[in-house]
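Researcher: Go.
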Amino acid sequence: MKSDRPFSIQARLKSFVYAFEGVMFFIRFEAQATIHLIAIVVVLGAGYWFKISSMEWIAVVFAIGTVVAAEMLNTAIEKLTDMVSPEFSLKAKVVKDLAAGAVLMASFVAAVVGLIVFLPKLIE
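Model: Structure:
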């Protein structure tokens, strides 16, 4: 579907500002963000300590980004669900559980990446 609005650099820059505001909201107001930030610092420190390869850095950074993005999407879905369905609803619960499950899956894959990258270095 084609937009009737012409391309605007200013509008594109505003969209980055809004996205940054979303990241800052997540960091400031969501408890999970603190947990993820602590884990990120630990993993990045371990990567530096063990001098992981470029390919290992790619895997680790991709895993971190995937988990954080999934957590932010989960947060957005939860807040939207709460807004449109403030009373308990089995359908709303399923939506929230699916979003939380996506975070769990991303976290599981990130943990496997971490084991593949760091376990051999810990064993040495």
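Model: The chain has a mean pLDDT of 96.
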